[in-house]
Recover the amino acids of this structure.
C-alpha cells in the first residue's frame, strides 16, 4: 500500500525524521504512536505531500508521490486540528469538498450518526470544538478511498461519538480499507489497531502487532507497554 | 484551479472586509461626484487616491487572507489538487474580489452620474485598468511575503513596509539621486527607476494622460520617445504585466517547496 | 455754348479718372500675356484683371496706384528666381492671386509680396505657397492685410522666412489670415498701432506671432496652435492681448505666450490650453492678467527674473500640472480672486470666497526647474508630502505669494 524508504526531514536545525523505512500493507489498521515531537504528524503529512521530504522516497499504491497529486484521490485525511474556513456553513463545506474531489460521497448516514442535522446551516466559525471534530470526521469518512489517515481522531469527542467512531473504523476495515491512526489514548489504540508503529526521535523504534508489543515489553496493556518502550530507550 | 478560485472568491465576497472595501469606494465615488459634479475632475482626484490606496489595501488584504485561510489551505492540500492551483486559485480569488469591489464601487456612482455618455469614459477605464493592475501586483507581492514568513506579525510588518517603501521611500531616494547626480544625463536612469516600482509605473500611465504638456517640456530623448508616442503606454503595460507574472512565478516556486 | 461743352468735357476727364478707369485683361490668349506688361500698359487707378492660368514671372513691379485682381486664382510661379510682386506705390490693391515658388536666399529676404514705403494698400484673398517670406511690409503704413492664406513648408529656422512681416510699418490691420509652416507666422518689428484680429497661426517653426520693439498694438481673437511657441512679445509697451486662444504649443522651450522685457500690457479673456508653459514671464512689469483660462498646461505661469507690479485677477486655473512657478523667493506681484482647481480649502461663510489662502507655487515646481528629470515624480505621494510641508512653512518659495481670496467656483 505504502512504501517508505530512507525518509529524512529537517525543520531548520530540528531533525524530525531520520531515515524512516516503512511498509504499510493493505487491509490493516496501523496505529502510529510516539511521544510529542517524535514526528508522527510529519510522517503523515509527508505521505499526504504536505511536507516535502529532504531525502528518501514514498510510494503510494506503487507510484512515487513526488510531484504527483492524483494519488490523494485514494486518501481520506482527518487533520489533527479541525479548523475550517469560518465563513462557510457546514453543508457548504461538505458540498465544496465533494465538488473538489468530484465525488458525491455518502454523508447522509454519517450526519445522522453524529447528529449534525441541527448544525448544517450554521457557520463553521460558530461551532464548538467537538462539533467541528464531528464535521471533520464526516468529511473524512464520507468517501470510499482505499486509505484513511486519521490524525488524533478522538480529540474533543463525547463518549457517544467515540463509540460511533470506533464502529465506523471497524466498518471501514471490513470494507478492506487501510487505516493509519495516531492517537494519545492508548485504550483507543488497543481497541482498534492491528499493528503499532512506534516513533521515537525520528526513527521507527518498534513496528509489530499488539501482541508482539506486549511480548517484547512484558506488559499486559498497551499504555504500560508504550511507557516501557520509552523508558527502555 | 477553477474550483479553488470559485470557493476563495465566494468566501471573500461574503466576508465583511470585501463589503467595507466596496462601500468605501462607493462612498468615495459618490462623495467626489457630489462635491464637484465634474466627472473628469473626480477621475483625476481618484487617480491620485488609487495609486496609493490600492497597493496598501492589496498588500494588507493579501497577507491577511493568506494567514487567515491557513486552515482552508491545509484542507485543500489533502485533496487531490496540485499545489500551484491551490495558491493561484486563492491569489486570484483575493485579487479578483478586490478588483471586483473596486470596479463596482467606483463604477456604480460614475455610471449613475452619466459616465457612459461623457468623454471621461476613457480616463475612467484607464483608472480601473491601473487599479486592477496594482491590485494584482500587490496581492501577489503580499502572498509572497506571507508564504515566506510563518510569523503573522512579521509578515504584516513586511507587507506594510513594502507598501511604505514603494509608495513613499522609493520616490524619496529616487528624487535625491536625481538631484545629487543632476550634472549627468539622467533620463534613461529615471525611466528605468520608474519601471522598477509598479506604483511609479502606474503613475506614469496617469501622467501620460494628465500632464503630457509638462512632460514634453523636458529635453531628454528617451523621455520624449517614451511620453511623446504610444510606446510609453505599451511599455508601461508590459512592465506592469511582468510585475504580476514574476511574483506569481516565485509564489509557485515557494509553494511547491513549502511544508505545511 | 461750345465753350461750355469743352469745359464740361474737361471736368469729366479731370474728376472722374476712376469712373472711366479701364480694365486691362491679362491671359494667355489676350493681347497682353504677362502681368508685368499689364501693369505697364495700365493707367493709374485701372484694374489689371488676370484670368485663370499660370504665369511664370518674378520681380513684378507695381509702381502706380491700381488694382491687381485675379480671376479664379491665376497662378504666378516665380520659379524660385527671386521676389515675385513688389509694390512701390500708394493705393494699390492686390486681390485673388495664387503665388508660388519664391526664391530662397541667405542674403536677401525675398518675399512673395513686398510693400515698400507705400500707404493705403490692401492685400486680400491671396494664397501663398512654397515661399520664403510671405507678405513683407517695410515702412508702409495705413494698409490692410485681409483673408490671405500662407502655407509654407519651413524645416529649419536659418533658411526659412516669416509669413507676414511688418517692419517700421504703422496703423496696419491684419485680419482673418491663415498662416502655417513658416518661421514666424506674423512678425512685427518697430511697428506701432497695429491691429491683429481673427487670424490663425499654426505649426510655425518659431512663433505664431512675434513682437519686437513694437508699441501700442492690439491682437484679438486669434488662434495660435502647435507652434514652436505661440506668441512672443519682447521689448514692447502697451500691447493688448484679448480673446486669443493658445493651444498645444508643446516642447522644451515651448510657450503659449512669452513675455520678455515688456511693460504695461493687458492680457484679458484669453484661453491657454495644453501648452508646456502657458505664459513665461521675464522682466515684465505692470501687466494685468484678467479673466484668462489656463487649462491643462504643464506650467500655467512661469516667472523668471524680476517682474514687478503685475496683477493676476479673475483667472481660472484648471488642472495645470503647476499653476505658478517662480525661480526666486521675491514676489511683488498680486494674485487675487482667481479660481484654482487645485484649491482644497473651504468656504464656511458661503460668500463664494475660500476662507484659507491658496499658495499656487509648489516646492516641486522649484525642484523641477532645477532638475528637470524630476518631473517624472509628478503626482507621487512623496512629492505631495514635501509640497504639503512647504505649504505649511515656506522655505524655498515666496512667502507672500498667495491668493488670499480664491474663488470657490469657476468663473464662467
Amino acid at each position: 500500500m505504502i512504501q517508505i524508504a530512507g525518509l529524512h526531514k529537517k525543520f531548520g536545525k530540528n531533525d524530525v525524521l531520520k531515515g524512516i523505512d516503512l511498509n504499510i500493507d493493505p487491509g490493516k489498521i496501523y496505529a502510529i504512536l510516539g511521544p510529542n515531537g517524535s514526528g508522527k504528524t510529519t510522517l503523515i503529512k509527508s505521505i499526504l505531500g504536505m511536507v516535502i521530504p529532504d531525502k528518501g522516497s514514498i510510494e503510494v499504491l506503487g507510484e512515487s508521490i513526488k510531484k504527483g497529486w492524483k494519488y490523494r484521490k485514494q486518501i481520506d485525511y482527518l487533520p489533527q486540528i479541525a479548523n475550517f474556513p469560518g465563513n462557510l456553513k457546514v453543508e457548504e463545506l461538505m458540498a465544496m469538498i465533494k465538488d473538489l474531489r468530484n465525488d458525491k460521497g455518502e454523508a447522509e448516514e454519517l450526519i445522522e450518526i453524529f447528529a449534525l442535522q441541527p448544525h448544517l446551516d450554521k457557520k463553521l466559525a460558530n461551532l464548538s470544538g467537538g462539533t467541528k471534530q464531528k464535521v471533520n470526521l464526516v468529511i473524512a469518512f464520507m468517501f470510499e478511498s482505499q486509505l484513511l489517515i486519521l490524525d488524533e481522531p478522538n480529540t474533543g469527542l463525547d463518549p457517544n461519538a467515540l463509540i460511533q467512531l470506533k464502529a465506523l473504523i471497524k466498518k471501514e476495515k471490513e470494507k478492506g480499507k487501510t487505516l493509519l491512526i495516531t492517537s494519545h489514548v492508548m485504550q483507543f489504540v488497543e481497541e482498534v489497531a492491528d499493528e503499532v508503529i512506534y516513533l521515537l526521535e525520528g526513527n521507527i523504534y518498534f513496528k509489530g502487532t499488539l501482541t508482539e508489543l506486549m511480548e517484547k515489553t512484558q506488559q499486559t496493556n498497551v499504555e504500560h507497554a508504550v511507557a516501557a518502550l520509552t523508558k527502555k530507550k | 484551479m477553477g474550483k479553488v478560485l470559485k470557493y476563495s472568491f465566494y468566501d471573500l465576497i461574503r466576508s465583511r472586509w470585501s463589503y467595507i472595501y466596496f462601500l468605501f469606494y462607493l462612498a468615495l465615488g459618490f462623495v467626489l461626484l457630489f462635491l464637484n459634479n465634474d466627472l473628469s475632475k473626480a477621475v483625476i482626484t481618484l487617480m491620485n487616491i488609487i495609486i496609493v490606496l490600492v497597493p496598501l489595501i492589496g498588500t494588507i488584504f493579501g497577507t491577511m487572507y493568506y494567514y487567515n485561510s491557513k486552515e482552508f489551505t491545509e484542507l485543500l492540500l489533502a485533496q487531490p489538487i496540485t499545489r500551484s492551483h491551490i495558491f493561484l486559485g486563492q491569489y486570484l480569488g483575493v485579487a479578483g474580489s478586490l478588483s471586483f469591489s473596486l470596479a463596482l464601487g467606483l463604477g456604480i456612482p460614475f455610471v449613475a452620474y452619466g459616465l457612459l455618455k461623457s468623454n471621461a469614459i476613457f480616463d475612467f477605464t484607464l483608472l480601473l485598468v491601473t487599479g486592477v493592475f496594482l491590485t494584482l501586483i500587490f496581492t501577489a507581492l503580499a502572498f509572497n511575503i506571507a508564504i515566506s514568513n510563518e510569523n503573522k506579525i512579521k509578515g504584516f510588518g513586511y507587507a506594510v513596509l513594502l507598501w511604505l517603501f514603494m509608495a513613499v521611500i522609493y520616490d524619496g531616494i529616487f528624487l535625491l539621486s536625481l538631484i545629487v547626480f543632476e550634472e549627468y544625463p539622467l533620463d534613461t536612469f529615471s525611466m528605468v527607476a520608474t519601471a522598477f516600482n509598479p506604483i511609479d509605473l502606474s503613475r506614469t500611465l496617469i501622467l501620460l494622460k494628465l500632464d503630457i504638456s509638462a512632460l514634453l517640456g523636458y529635453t531628454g530623448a528617451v523621455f520624449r520617445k517614451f511620453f511623446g508616442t504610444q510606446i510609453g503606454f505599451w511599455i508601461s503595460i508590459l512592465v506592469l504585466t511582468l510585475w504580476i507574472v514574476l511574483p506569481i512565478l516565485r509564489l509557485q516556486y515557494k509553494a511547491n517547496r513549502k511544508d505545511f | 455754348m461750345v465753350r461750355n461743352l469743352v469745359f464740361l468735357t474737361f471736368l469729366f476727364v479731370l474728376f472722374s479718372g476712376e469712373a472711366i478707369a479701364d480694365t486691362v485683361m491679362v491671359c494667355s490668349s489676350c493681347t497682353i500675356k504677362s502681368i508685368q506688361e499689364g501693369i505697364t500698359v495700365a493707367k493709374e487707378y485701372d484694374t489689371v484683371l488676370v484670368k485663370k492660368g499660370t504665369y511664370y514671372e518674378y520681380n513684378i513691379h507695381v509702381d502706380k496706384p491700381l488694382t491687381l485682381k485675379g480671376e479664379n486664382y491665376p497662378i504666378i510661379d516665380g520659379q524660385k528666381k527671386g521676389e515675385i510682386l513688389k509694390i512701390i506705390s500708394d493705393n494699390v490693391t492686390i486681390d485673388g492671386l495664387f503665388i508660388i515658388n519664391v526664391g530662397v536666399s541667405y542674403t536677401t529676404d525675398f518675399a512673395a509680396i513686398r510693400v515698400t514705403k507705400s500707404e493705403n494698400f490692401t492685400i486680400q484673398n491671396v494664397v501663398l505657397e512654397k515661399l520664403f517670406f510671405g507678405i513683407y511690409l517695410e515702412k508702409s503704413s495705413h494698409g490692410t492685410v485681409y483673408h490671405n492664406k500662407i502655407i509654407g513648408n519651413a524645416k529649419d529656422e536659418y533658411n526659412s522666412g516669416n509669413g507676414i512681416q511688418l517692419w517700421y510699418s504703422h496703423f496696419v490691420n491684419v485680419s482673418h489670415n491663415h498662416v502655417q509652416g513658416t518661421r514666424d507666422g506674423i512678425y512685427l518689428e518697430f511697428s506701432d498701432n497695429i491691429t491683429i484680429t481673427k487670424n490663425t497661426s499654426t505649426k510655425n517653426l518659431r512663433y505664431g506671432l512675434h513682437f519686437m520693439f513694437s508699441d501700442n498694438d492690439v491682437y484679438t481673437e486669434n488662434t495660435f496652435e502647435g507652434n514652436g511657441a505661440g506668441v512672443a512679445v519682447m521689448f514692447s509697451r502697451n500691447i493688448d492681448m484679448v480673446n486669443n486662444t493658445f493651444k498645444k504649443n508643446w516642447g522644451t522651450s515651448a510657450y503659449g505666450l512669452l513675455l520678455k522685457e515688456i511693460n504695461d500690457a493687458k492680457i484679458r479673456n484669453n484661453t491657454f490650453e495644453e501648452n508646456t508653459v502657458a505664459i513665461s514671464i521675464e522682466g515684465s512689469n505692470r501687466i494685468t492678467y484678467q479673466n484668462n483660462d489656463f487649462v491643462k498646461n504643464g506650467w500655467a505661469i512661469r516667472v523668471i527674473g524680476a517682474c514687478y507690479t503685475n496683477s493676476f485677477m479673475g483667472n481660472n486655473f484648471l488642472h495645470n500640472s503647476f499653476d505658478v512657478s517662480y525661480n526666486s523667493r521675491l514676489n511683488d506681484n498680486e494674485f487675487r480672486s482667481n479660481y484654482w482647481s487645485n484649491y482644497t480649502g473651504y468656504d464656511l461663510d458661503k460668500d463664494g470666497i475660500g476662507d484659507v489662502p491658496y499658495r499656487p507655487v509648489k516646492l516641486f515646481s522649484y525642484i523641477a526647474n532645477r532638475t528637470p528629470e524630476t518631473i517624472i515624480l509628478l503626482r507621487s505621494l512623496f512629492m505631495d508630502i514635501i509640497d504639503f510641508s512647504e505649504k505649511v512653512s515656506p522655505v524655498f518659495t515666496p512667502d507672500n505669494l498667495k491668493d488670499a481670496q480664491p474663488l470657490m467656483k469657476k468663473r464662467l
Q: What stands out?
A: The longest strand of chain A covers residues 14-24. Chain A has a mean pLDDT of 85. Chain A is about 35% helix and 25% strand.
